[in-house]
Amino acid sequence: xxxxxxxxxxxxxxxxxxxxxxxxxxxxxxxxxxxxxxxxxxxxxxxxxxxxxxxxxxxxxxxxxxxxxxxxxxxxxxxxxxxxxxxxxxxxxxxxxxxxxxxxxxxxxxxxxxxxxxxxxxxxxxxxxxxxxxxxxxxxxxxxxxxxxxxxxxxxxxxxxxxxxxxxxxxxxxxxxxxxxxxxxxxxxxxxxxxxxxxxxxxxxxxxxxxxxxxxxxxxxxxxxxxxxxxxxxxxxxxxxxxxxxxxxxxxxxxxxxxxxxxxxxxxxxxxxxxxxxxxxxx
Length: 283
Fold this sequence. Notes:
The chain is α/β, with parallel strands linked by helices and 283 residues long. The chain folds into two domains: 2-173, Rossmann fold (3-Layer(aba) Sandwich), CATH 3.40.50.620; 187-276, Pantoate--beta-alanine Ligase, Chain: A,domain 2, CATH 3.30.1300.10. 39% of the residues lie in helices and 18% in strands. It contains eleven helices and nine strands. It has helices at 7-19, 35-47, 75-84, 95-98, 110-113, 117-120, 124-138, 151-163, 193-198, 201-214, 220-234; strands spanning 2-4, 24-29, 50-55, 89-91, 143-147, 169-173, 239-246, 262-269, 272-279. The strands form two sheets. It has a six-stranded parallel sheet with strand order 1-4-3-2-5-6, with helices on both faces. Helix 7 (124-138) crosses helix 8 and helix 10 runs antiparallel to helix 11 (220-234). The radius of gyration is 19 Å and the shape is globular.
C-alpha cells in the first residue's frame, strides 16, 4: 500500500492506473475510521481494480463552534485497517496542501443544502462540496463511494457531479448499524454510557415512521409528532435538532405521506450530534 501526501504524486498514481486500463475507486474520509468506512472499502474493492482512500480532516466544513479539534483522529489504526482491507493507496494531505491559497472558492448546491442539517450548519455543505471537488480533481477515479447515513450529503454530491459534468459515478452504500440499530459514526465515541444506551432511539423513531405510513397514516404531522414523542420517551438525554419527512429527490417537506417519503433526524447528546435517515414509504 502506498501513502501519498502530495497532489502531484497522488494524481500520477491514479493516472498511471487509468492508462493501464484499470478502474479506480475512491473513498473519501475525515479519518477516525470504523466499520461503516470499512464496508465502503469492501464495496470499492469488489467493484474496482484500484482502491484509493483519502484521509483528510477538512476544516472548511466545520463552523468555529463545532468539533473540529475534538474529532476522532486515529491515523495509525486507519492506515493499518486500510492495508488489511487491500487498499492500494492512501492520500493524506495537510491543510496547506489542500488550501494553499486559503479558502477563496465556493461550490454550493443551495437548493438541497438549505434543508435538514443545512439549517443548523450553514457552512457545512459548502465546505463538503469544495473538498470533494478538489478530491475528484486530484484523484480522477471512476467511482466514488459514500455511505447512506449521510443522505443529504450524498444527494448534494450527486447533484454537484451532474451539474458540473464530473465524469465519476457516485455509489451510495447502505448504512452500517450496531446490533441495536444505532448507525455507526465516528461521533459515537463521544457518547457517555447513558447516552449510548439511549441513542438507538433514533433508529427506533425512523422505524416507527415507516410502520405508521405502512399502516395507512397519510398526515406527516401525525407521524412527526409520534417520532418526537418516541425520542422524548426513549432518549430523554437527547436534544432534537430536527425530525423531517421529505421528498427524497428535492428534500422539500412532504404535504402528505401517500408518495415517495424519506425521513431524517438529528439529535444532540452532549458534544455528539447524531444523524440518521430511512426511506419510510416502503419502497
